[in-house]
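Form 12-C: Joint structure prediction
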Amino acid sequence: MSEASTATATRPGRHAAVPSGGDRGRDRRRGGPSDRARAERRLGWYLAGPAFVILLAVTLYPILQAVFYSLFSYRLTNPDAREFVGLSNYGVILTDPLWWRAFAVTAFITVVTVVVELVIGFALALVMHRALSLLRPIIRTVILIPYAIITVVSAFAWQYAFSIDSGFVNRWLRLGEVDWFGDFWTAITVIMLSEIWKTTPFISLLLLAGLAQVPEDLQEAARVDGATWWERLRRVTIPNMKAAILVAVLFRALDAFRIFDNVFVMTGGSQDTSTLSLLAYNQTITRVEIGLGSAVSVLLFLSVVAIAFLFIRLFNVDLARARGEA
Amino acid sequence: MAGGGRRTRTAAVAGMAAGALAALAACGGDGEAGPPVLTWYINPDNGGQAELAQVCTDEAEGRYRIATALLPSDADAQREQLIRRLAAEDGSVALMSIDPIFVPEFAEAGFLAPVPDDLREEVTEGVVESAVQAATYQDEIVSVPFWANTQLLWYRQSVAEEAGVDLESAVTWEQVIEAAEQTDSTVAVQARRYEGYAVLIQALVAGAGGAVIENPDDEAENLEYGLDSDAGRAASEVIASLASSGVGGPALSSSDETAALSLFQGDRGGFMVNWPFVWRSSVDAVDAGSLDQAVVDDIGWAVYPATTDDAEPAPPFGGIQLGVGAFTPDADLAYEAAACLSRPENQRDYFLSSGNPAAAAEVYDDPEVQEQYPMAETIRDSLEQAVPRVQTPYYGDVSTALQRTFSPPEDVEPGSTPGRATDLIRDVLAGEALL
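Section 2 - Result
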């Protein structure tokens, strides 16, 4: 999913997130849409239709193709030996400790980075929200800079900063000759730091949108009642932006689970830092084992679908409500 | 007002779209008919291949024009890009600079146009033995040797003297490591998890008289593995001792060619195995003012160390082979161009401009080469002894499996690592393990 589209999707809507909004919509549906509503819906399809078709062509087709190839033993450099093997590629993957190791590493990176990003992102969102309107655009731009940098570029920047020969981190922190990429824990720390640095702005933007949805009169009322800043944050602000928080966490979790660039650039998977995306890349692109690689990709895809499903079911994330649609 | 603004915006968007279309159309082709263009996919260098392309284009007098296209800098990424193009039967791939380790894979997959009979002899005559071997797959010449590379043992003369080690005669790894320990200096090698580490592992196995795969030409299921042997254990012992003695430097497990060179040029530099580009790099660094002339004056060189006393040294072999794409309509012209590019005088010029050693033996007798590369003779000797890495179409898998089981070098155990590596290679080639 493109992050840009999700960023605009969660722009504060004209309607505040009123808890009863969903019910109202349902009531109207029961009575049947008016002519105007029907015309609007048709126009909606006309406008979104072409994009929808293109999206199907560029996402559904490759997904189906990957599922198909995953049932074959198929090496790109030896296409004549292509052979149908059923689900055996999946068997190979799911019994290979490498898959489970990569799964654990990916899950670890996802949990840690999303939690840290959420905390820092929330703090940044509060700063942006409270900043004087004169300063707000400047602060917002400054905070967004890391997000504007291409991931590969930021990964190289972090790698150079921490590398033992040309890096400045060891010197600045007076650490001597620490080989950051020579050990799992140090390497994964740098990978996660760069990921956090790069994507916290995204989460803080989503949270800023959520903050804007919190009705000012509720804040006002709480203030009149003598609530402290902390109490207002806990009892008014956060409950009112729950949907925005969950959407932010969901989108980041889905992205973080597919982490590739940082690991690819910094360690290439050495020191056991391989993630699922890197595993899929290694089978498909490096080994040109299209069958096995497609099976890894399909499993990765299913993991991402499972995360999204769990979030939506478990936490009741209402995407429509987060968008500010009543 | 608002409507006017929208109109202006629409006009601006339309203008931009038209501009983009015009630009795209301009990219579509230059329209004018000229000689066939042979696209030569080259590995990045300092411009030497582009110069040769010009030389041969001029010489062709309008029969063809060679245009270069740059590949990524590391060999694996070069292979990935070429394979993707060739698997899609891309006819624009006329000439390719291929790392010799991938020649068998390309040949087996039918990605290389057959070498014309009359050229086979021409392109291998007077070429060092290891380069001819690398151009051969299943007893047939399938590529054109362009330049040949080999690693030397580089050392700081002052350190070797202090340690009292005689590098004029063949040495073993054990002696080198001992000398470094005595003098509190380092032995710079490549042990990051990448191809350079596979080079080291295979050179160590070959340097103990073994081979990772005994019959690499055979089918995957009939392969005989030679790693779980005395040679494999001797190789593992060298790696384990580089790591445990600390002479491999503080970043052994993330060291590549460049990191090895900076370790060697640093204060504790003592010994290093590396390709000859390090000489050119060091001389250039002095010119740029980033390295002391005294360091370059102190550099000595010798043939790659042997792994055991009773075996011959087996220096790594590298370099570039020229391949002609199987799907180009101009294969004959491309081979003509390959013959031109790989002519000894062109190899000589390329050696001088880029520091990449020639595959043709006669180049090393050239006075200018000898003047600029005082180690030219050692390079030629090394090339005659060099052993190419496993020549199998599954080289990538074999290499990755080796890198994985031997990483990090600190965890290599001579008793078990070679066995684990063999198991992994076998499983991977049988499609029963991930990499």
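Section 3 - Comments
The domain at 3-32+96-322 of chain A is CATH 1.10.3720.10 (MetI-like fold). Strands of chain A lie at 72-75, 78-84.
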